[in-house]
């Protein structure tokens, strides 16, 4: 590269010198040759470096395939940070020597699941780096004791992540789901992507064809086209089916990896307090077409209480109000 640079530099200098001499002879340039050449050197060097940088190749995934995922041993986050030195504060990573496949924000709705989050960070950071993504991890923590609202937290994650970086893809992941194959790339596709296709919870089968829960990926354009996710599903259940309806009503389909690559393990746990089944969910799902234009990103209301940049993730604690507010 250095020899190529010197050769090009000398040849270009000779060409410019001859052009400048002709210009002076014709009265088209002044005599300040040194000033002219200093300016030209600077411009040419910047152009050369820009072109060299833009010759970077697209990243190629360096994945293993099927992975062993287990939850028998406790996880120490200091050790996880030590073995992932390329991950920067706030859970940010970008490949150095190639162009990342996509700029991905990973959004995790959260409350009182610290042990699950440790496992997620332990497994996912190495996977995401091997997938050569330019990514950030955002844990959206619901403050208070009101009913949990998964979909609203995901909307907030979308809005807050875009304030930090120009992400073009958003992966929405429950904190207790770990992929069992790193060929299941956490990126966006031409159609919305359902990533958690075959979970151990369901006997490694898709529970029903319209299922869109667990882990999903939507591009910025796809997400805004459906007005984001609904804000009015308080408690457990229903929001993923509402999201599926939104996609269908906007003419989109669902893409999935095959059942082997899409395998996931769930960290077993009892149902969280204040996350009981939502008795209104079936009625709300039945009226998605009428409500989706007035319930979503355009009606999102919340207050950020604090933002913490930890070594492996960004935690944003929010007040999202209550079902009656």
From TrEMBL:
Cell compartments where the protein resides: Golgi apparatus membrane
A Pfam family it matches: Glyco_transf_7C
EC id: 2.4.1.-
Keywords assigned by UniProt, alphabetized: Disulfide bond, Glycoprotein, Glycosyltransferase, Golgi apparatus, Manganese, Membrane, Metal-binding, Signal-anchor, Transferase, Transmembrane, Transmembrane helix
A biological process from GO: carbohydrate metabolic process
Swiss-Prot/TrEMBL catalytic activity: N-acetyl-D-glucosamine + UDP-alpha-D-galactose = beta-D-galactosyl-(1->4)-N-acetyl-D-glucosamine + UDP + H(+)
GO molecular function: beta-N-acetylglucosaminylglycopeptide beta-1,4-galactosyltransferase activity; cytoskeletal protein binding; metal ion binding; N-acetyllactosamine synthase activity
Primary localization: Golgi
Signal sequence bounds: none
Cofactors (names): Mn(2+)
Pathway: Protein modification; protein glycosylation
Coiled coil: none
UniProt KW Transit peptide keyword: no
Record GO cellular component, one term: Golgi membrane
Residue ranges occupied by any Galactosyltransferase N-terminal domain in the UniProt entry: 62-188
Bilayer topology annotation: Single-pass type II membrane protein
Segments forming domain Galactosyltransferase C-terminal: 193-269
Family membership: Belongs to the glycosyltransferase 7 family.
Function according to Swiss-Prot or TrEMBL: Responsible for the synthesis of complex-type N-linked oligosaccharides in many glycoproteins as well as the carbohydrate moieties of glycolipids.
Protein name, per record: Beta-1,4-galactosyltransferase
Source organism of the structure: Bubo bubo (Eurasian eagle-owl)
